[in-house]
Amino acid sequence: MTAGQYSVDSGTDEARPRGGRLPRRERRAQLLDSALEVFVAQGYHAAAMDDIAERAGVSKPVLYQHFPGKLDLYLALLDASCDTIIANTRAALEATQDNKKRVEATMTVFYDYVASDTGAFKLVFESDLTNEPAVREHVERVTSETAALVARVIHEDTGLPDEAARLLAVSLVGMAQVSARFWLTEAGGISRGDAAALVAGLAWRGIAGYPLSDEPGS
Predict the structure, then answer these.
(1) pLDDT (tens digit, 9 = 90+) per residue, 68-80?
(2) Which pTM value belongs to this model?
(3) Are residues 129 and 101 in the same domain?
(4) What is the CATH number of the domain that holds 166?
(5) Rounded (10°) CA dihedral 193, 195, 200, 201
(6) From CA 122, how far away is CA 41, in angstroms rounded?
(7) Which segments of 98-214 does DSSP mark as H helices, in order?
(8) What is the sign, positive or negative, of the torsion defined by CA atoms of 86, 88, 92, 94?
(9) Do 91 and 38 belong to one domain?
């Protein structure tokens, strides 16, 4: 199991049966899996460690052996979710040298993420705890690190200054985030693939207007 990937059984709301002892890594993964379900369903403030322990089928002392408090558990989930988006964005950009396909693949990363059955995107993009500095830092890391990856490609392929490349990259990432979330809640009549392709086409028509030959002084 890789970071941010949880085997969520979304088909039942019943607590998992209590089982025998698990290796520490497996137990931690199980607790994260259960915590994700509870946080997505209830939000941070309404969720309780009792709920998470019950969902995982363990006692509260077992839960606290792995996570000292609810915020620690939430941040661990947030870390995994952020790492997933960033890693998938990097993979999308490295998968091809065709910039049009790069735009399409990067846009698809965000649409696939919000469409995941785990609902993990709610922790990153719809957190009810953004007033907590540590949470806000994690959430902002998604934008800053994915934009940095995109900006590097823009700078290398267009010759634009770093500041200009980063501004364009943040704009593209923002377009992906906002449009994907809107699609999920307001544009369900459009398939995920069609929606991602539609917005990718808009993004490409814009970013394609910055060829390398436009580099100042060329």
Answers:
(1) 999 999 999 999 9
(2) 0.80
(3) yes
(4) 1.10.357.10
(5) 110
(6) 10
(7) 99-115, 121-125, 133-158, 162-186, 192-207
(8) positive
(9) no
Render pLDDT for 101-159 as a digit per residue (tens, 0 to 9). 999 999 999 999 999 888 888 888 888 888 899 989 988 999 999 999 999 999 998 88
Is there a contact between 105 and 172 (Cβ–Cβ < 8 Å)?
no
Cβ-in-10-Å burial (0-12, 13-18, 19+) of 193 comes to: exposed
CB-based contacts of 14: which residues, under 8 Å, 6+ apart?
none
Both tokens of 135, joined, read 């949470």
With tokens 């019943």, the residue in question is 14
Provide CB contacts within 8 A for 59, sequence distance 6+. 53
Distances (CA, A) of 190 to 55, 93, 101, 111: 34, 25, 21, 12
User: Structure tokens of 124?
Assistant: 């990153």
CB-based contact 185:126 (threshold 8 Å): no
Determine the angle formed by the axes of helices 49-56 and 24-46, rounding to 10 degrees: 140
148 and 101 belong to one structural domain: yes
Indicate whether 13 pLDDT > 70: no
CA distance 88 to 178: 18
